[in-house]
Specification:
By secondary structure, the chain is mainly beta. The protein is built from three helices and nine strands, in the order ααβββββββββα.
């Protein structure tokens, strides 16, 4: 697939897959062995618990996905979307890529993965109401906003990329196939 895309776009497969090497449209670049290119992998967790370290509260790695192109932040975690509270922007089976962030750096209108003090995690739109209170909003209007104290948010991660469910299935790599 990468060779076909490279041929159509005129870029080398190594650059296309990992952003490495020459972007040149030189046909000789199409013959580079792409198996030697190391693509950084991102763990996708079953649970969003303990965003600063998802494995700390028993979050199990379901699989790995290649790091989205142009997203160089570390650490970066993937989380599978469950349910329809953020439909139509996020659908069940989609994966959001999120980076841990200070609660003070989240701006109104940003989508976040938040771990709440009662060990529930949620994907919502962030809306500060006051210095002490926030509203976590579902895009699906059948769900009411959740108004809580800021202190009820144990940790938060800003959503920085999305991968649709059909692409996830084509790209997933089992945990045993990735060097950790």
């Amino acid at each position: 697939m990468a060779l076909k895309i490279a041929a159509v776009t005129g870029v080398s497969p190594a650059w296309l897959l990992a952003g490495q090497g020459d972007i040149s449209d030189n046909p000789e670049n199409f013959l580079e062995p792409v198996s030697d290119v190391k693509v950084p992998m991102v763990p996708v967790f079953e649970s969003m618990a303990a965003i600063s370290d998802p494995s700390a509260l028993g979050g199990r790695i379901l699989y790995y996905l290649p790091r989205p192109h142009g997203i160089d932040v570390a650490p970066l975690y993937g989380f599978e979307v469950v349910g329809d509270c953020m439909y139509p922007a996020y659908k069940p089976g989609d994966v959001v890529f999120a980076m841990p962030e200070s609660i003070n750096n989240i701006r109104s209108g940003e989508d976040v993965v938040a771990l709440l003090e009662w060990n529930e995690f949620t994907l919502k739109r962030w809306n500060p109401i006051s210095e002490e209170r926030i509203e976590l909003i579902s895009l699906n209007r059948t769900y009411r906003p959740l108004e809580i104290q800021r202190s009820a948010v144990r940790s938060v991660a800003r959503v920085v990329a999305l991968q649709w469910a059909d692409a996830v299935r084509r790209c997933m790599v089992e945990p045993g196939e990735v060097e950790e």
